Amino acid sequence: MLGRLNPLVLALMSVSWGLPAAAWAQAETPAVPAPQTLKAVTVSATPLSRSEQDLAAPVTVLDEDDLLTRRAATLGETLEQEPGITSSHFGAGASRPIIRGMDGARVKIVSDGAEVQDASTISPDHAVGLEPMLSQRVEVLRGPAALLYGGGAVGGVVNVLDNKIPTEMPENAVEGSVELRGATGPRETSGAFELTTGGKGLVFHAEGLKRNANDYKVGRGWAGGNRVDGSYNHTETGSVGLSWVGDRGYIGLAYTSQRNRYGLPGHDHAYEGCHAHGTHLHCPDDGHDHGDEDGHDHDHGEEGDSHGVPFVKLRSQRWDVRGELRDPFAGFTRLRVRAGFTDYQHDEIEGDTIATTFKNKAHDGRVELEHAPIGGLRGVIGAQTTRRDFSALGEEAYVQPTVTRNNGLFALEEYTVGDWRFEGGLRHEWQRIDVQGGAPDTRHRGTSVSAGAVWKFAPQYSLGVSASRSHRLPTAEELYANGLHLATSTYEIGNANLKKETSNNIDLTLRKFAGPTTFSVSVFHNKMDNFIYGRTLDVYQNLQLLEYTQHDATFTGLEAKVRHQIDRIFAVSLTGDYVRAKLDGGGNLPRIPAYRVGTRLDARWQAWSGDVELSYVGRQDKVAEFETETAGYTMLNLGAAYEGRMSGTRYQIYVRANNLTNKLAYRHTSFIKNAAPLMGRNIVMGVRLTF
């Protein structure tokens, strides 16, 4: 694999390290008429209000204009083109971000700092409880500040910002937007709106979305047909919020209702009646064998039987409280409060019958206090508490009802001297899980610590290094799972004796943030002690016997993005990422993404913009036991947009063609990769009005 990566590494490093000698003399002569400077975007997920270029670890920020043509029905598909990020991909209805090969509970998803309480960490067929089309900005954070959201966020934190609780008075009496879009691949129509109005300190906000997407088309040559059965997604989301805005801050409340209905491709009833006997599967067909002679299974997730494709009917009600007060009392410059209460339920329905019901009633609250500088130190201290009451009832209730309580205390400090900025984070958390059904309750605690530094060693350049040692506490699913899960074609067995896992991570990031050429190149090494993962013990046809176990593991990787402004109109970019995840002592971890490399040519001329993207995903042949390899593929995307104004209203018209060559492709990170290939050629067209 490393041999095949040499061209990628050499190309990235040649651009990155080919620094002109004048840079070291603190001067640079631009090669284009107008040198470019990356816009300094304040990352709100970092409570000390720092920009991307000032952080020790890599950060990805997508603002509203970036998201205009990238937004998809799921958060994972919205972010999957960013370096270091891919998605779990479960048809069209469910997809979580995977960061540096880490998924599930290791990637924390928060809504403006408050944890999103859904069931998506339990299984990849469960949708994330927020809507990307209503987001204003998405931040992906790694490094020391990520500890503020949990020691278990070893992959990273995805912070989705919205406007459902206004933080300032609207400049005009009424502000808002309307967006309509359609897509040919899933025959999708969707529409969204937002409206903000206020006066005398009170601000009201309303927003909503409706999406109707049918089964999507796949690339040419798939043996399963033209479309993926059960890959439809119908969504309705609405929110109302009210806030009071004053000279020193704001406080607000919002209510959000979400309704989803989406199919479960690959759900196979043929394994009903299968059960585990020790380390082997026993199924009604006594003549089965456990895998092929070479120790690998057949392709997972073939189409189910005559029962038809089951679907999920999801209902979520959420209350959010957000507030901020500047100079709350002596010695402190800001008080920030976030709280959320979620009543979540989804039914997995087969025909007209509810087969399984998942319920999750949860609340999350956090308080942050930023103290005034003390001897040059700026910092934040805070506390967080979370309670989750989870239950699964029905045919696939493979996890016993549990109540999880987690409490944490955290601090983040920074110190700046000359061209150096230092930061450090500390978090301690306690967790208790009470379980029904006779299994023992569990208690865990863990302490996480991190440190980082940023050195601006020359104008336009910075070097960041961060190191962390963090503890992730096992989840209820990893501890207590026991039963069939047909959506992923697995029989899952938990382990109540699991210990906390320990991540020892180091990151090195080189940036150039101004001039005609800008870039960010990061390398990381993550040594994981007692890494928790689902190990496949046995297979019967496509059904896997999966047991949660622990083993030391190591994650090593690279992610990079280089952009060069050719002239006032054209710019070219090169991106790439690679992660190698293996068990210490031999063996590979399952569902690790393959390396990727891509290039993009974009242009801006007056009110027009456009781009051409060509990306290649490599073959993944570093696979775990019983896991099949996944072929590589190349995709071509085109996009164009026009922006104008009419009577004070800004309008944007856009069109995007994804997978223009209609390539048949499979995502290695998906449990159902062969039952649900990636979407084929898809033309997205839309218009957005902002007033």
Automatic annotation (TrEMBL):
Its main location: membrane. PROSITE patterns: TONB_DEPENDENT_REC_3 (PS52016). It is a multi-pass membrane protein. Residues 52-157 form the TonB-dependent receptor plug domain. Gene3D superfamilies: TonB-dependent receptor, beta-barrel domain, TonB-dependent receptor, plug domain. Residues 271-660 form the TonB-dependent receptor-like beta-barrel domain. GO terms for molecular function: siderophore uptake transmembrane transporter activity. Residues 1-25 form the signal peptide. Residues 285-306 have a biased composition (Basic and acidic residues). Residues 285-308 are annotated as: Disordered. It is found in: Cell outer membrane. It comes from the Bacteria. GO terms for biological process: siderophore transmembrane transport. Keywords: Cell outer membrane, Membrane, Receptor, Signal, TonB box, Transmembrane, Transmembrane beta strand, Transport. One of its GO terms (cellular component) is cell outer membrane. Belongs to the TonB-dependent receptor family. This is Iron complex outermembrane receptor protein.
